Amino acid sequence: MLNDAKNKEVNAIQAAIAILDDPSLAYVKSVEIDGETAWAIHAFDGTQLAVLADREAAFGAAITNDYVPVSAH
């Protein structure tokens, strides 16, 4: 019984990692530049793609470039 619970947990973790390792995902997170809040777009591997002035513009830019944007904290 304990092994079944552990296997389910491992499978759930593996599924979450597979979802997060999707090259179509773009992570949008707030960054501070010169004391101002901006919004950075990062590829699934952490590569910074762009920085925009507002969150909606960042999400829009990601979508326009065929990414699926998700918030990152």
Structure description:
The chain contains two helices and four strands, in the order αβββαβ. It has 73 residues and is an alpha+beta fold. The protein has a domain of 51 residues. Strands 3-2-1-4 form a four-stranded mixed beta sheet, with helices on one face. Strand 2 and strand 3 form a beta hairpin. The longest helix is centred in the N-terminal third of the chain and has 19 residues. The model has no long low-confidence stretch (mean pLDDT 84).
Keywords:
4-stranded mixed β-sheet; 4 strands; alpha+beta; 73 residues
Q: Report the radius of gyration as a whole number of Å.
A: 16 Å
Q: What is the number of beta strands?
A: 4
Share of helical residues: 25-40%
Biggest β-sheet description = 4 strands, mixed
- The shape, in one word, is elongated
Order of the strands making up the biggest sheet: 3-2-1-4
Termini distance? 36 Å
Task: Give the ordered list of helices and strands.
Answer: HEEEHE
Poorly predicted residue ranges: none
Query: Treating each run of at least 4 consecutive H or I residues as one helix, how many helices?
Result: 2
The whole-number mean of residue pLDDT values reads: 84
Briefly summarize what is shown.
This protein has 73 residues and is α+β, with helices and mostly antiparallel strands. It has two helices and four strands, in the order αβββαβ.
